[in-house]
Structures are given as structure tokens and as C-alpha cells.
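User: Can you help me understand a structure? I only have the sequence.
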Amino acid sequence: MNFSKDYISFGTKIIENFRDKNYKSYKQLLEYSQSMTLEEYDNIHKNPNIDKKIQENVDNSFKFLNSLNKFQTEQLNKLVLKTLDDTAFFFLREIEEGLIINESIGLTYKGKEISNIYNEFLSGTFFGEYFLWAENYSLYGKVLD
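Assistant: Let's start by predicting it. Here is the structure, written out as C-alpha cells:
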């Protein structure tokens, strides 16, 4: 099926902002945490202006991610991606249900009512379409089961 530019653009924006940007950020943190030893990390100068609780959280995240073996890293990757997908799915389902019972604040894209591309949805729903958008537009592949 040929999709309109608005359909493709909307699906791409949803995937970029719910999934890909967040997962990329997580992967960068993971790669950084696994790029050096704890001793090397401890020797890095820390910014004294950062709140102690924030620095403690950063340090603990580093230590946790640094300690993972290959299996644990693979499982965490799947869990993070599934959490991002679940968040998008539940949010889009809430929008969908709001539109159906007319309790929505409205949804527009590029200044047009979303109904202009709604008729292109193969799944018939926002949340169902998310699976197709992930498969077609995500840098990280389809939604995991």
C-alpha cells in the first residue's frame, strides 16, 4: 500500500520520539559504562557543582551497567526496548479511546486533524499501527514479544 507523506511523517515522528531517541540514549549510557573499568571511572574528575544525589545516581547507574555480563546486557536491552514500546502503546491506546468516546483533547498533525491519515491505518488503531511503524521506521527493528 502506498502511504501519504503525512502518514509516513507521523509514524516516523512517533517512533523517533517514543522509541529510537530514548533507546539510543540508553545504549550510549550502556556503551559508556562498559567502555572502562570501575577503577578508571573512579579516577575521572567529577564536576563538584553537580548535586550529590544526582552524582550518586550517575555513579550507581555506571556501576550497575558496568557489572553486567553479556546475557544480562541482552536481557536488559530487551527489557528497556519493551518498556519504551509498552509506554508508546499505552499512550496511543489512551488517545484512541479518548477519540472514540469523544473525551480527547484532540489530536492534530501539521495543523490538520489526525483523521486525515487515520483512514490509512492498516490496523485501524493508533496503538496497532505502532507495531507497523516500529517495523518499518525504527532503527531498532520490530516490537519484541
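Now, to help you interpret it: The helical segments are 5-33, 38-42, 52-66, 70-100, 115-118, 126-137. The radius of gyration is 20 Å. Let me know which part you'd like to focus on.
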